[in-house]
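Q: Here's a chain of 332 amino acids. Please give me its 3D structure as tokens.
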Amino acid sequence: MARRDRISGRTEAQVLGGEALRLKRYLERRAPGAFPDGAAAYGSPVEANEGYVAQRMLLEVLARAARQLGPAVGVEFGREIRCADLGLYGFVIQTAPTLHEGLRRAVRFQRLVVTWGQFSMRREPRSSWFAWNRPPLSDAEMLGARVVSEIVLTEHVAMFRELERSATPLRVRFMHGAPRPSRVHASFFACPIEWGAHEIAVEWSREPLDARRPVDASLDAFLLHEAERRLAALPSVGALEEIEQAIARALLEGQPSLEPIASTLGHTPRSLRHVLTGHHVTFRGLVDRVRAARSRELIASGLSLTETAARLGYSELSALSRALRRWGVGQP
């Protein structure tokens, strides 16, 4: 069961216990002591495959692991994944009749493995993108979040290669700057990698995604039914997190405004204001908070102020400079 922070009212983001257990075993093998013995204090016990572990604890662990094992630890861990390692989530992807349907199910059933951020998919004339839209982070969470973003894309690429050996991405994007060295990343993805990009995403060619796969239709129907049942039993996503994620996506198109955000989330402007009032924040204040957190990420990734301004929806560089001073964010 997801827990709610008593001060902010937010639902605490969590990760499937089975994934945390796999990480625990990996780090015990490579970096003894990196995984805290008191992990159960952060949520469900790590040993409970179907339980959940708090995301903040994993960020701390992964930041420590990156310092000890180097910048490629996310790819090195993620490339070992098999569909079966992720339980029902992995199985329902494994039995999909096409890889495109597998991508769709990854988005649909994301909350069976992680309640942090939001998976999304978009189709273009010759390709499809799978992306992870995560909420803004504090400076203290940044290193762990870089590792998590690499794990998310690496694991999904590894699962798709398990299903179709010839599956190779066309392009991969990360929001953080290029690690040094990045040979492990280049070797695993075997495609161009865009560092300091505006999103965390992987692009696939449409042709292999649309090819039919031989699957057991009865087993597939059973797994889909069970996945839908478990998804329905999960607590709802926190309203404030949904609004923050919608704002973060809207920043790429300019200054976010309340009416389009409300429409995107199925609210009227009045009902959205009511939700924000219940969390003791205004829409303008929330946009400012999302921008502040996002600015730290973009600047830390090595982006110029001009690029940062564009990705935060500022039309003028001077407006960003004033905001950075107000937020206390150092300029490059």
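Q: Can you summarize the key feature?
A: The longest strand covers residues 127-133.
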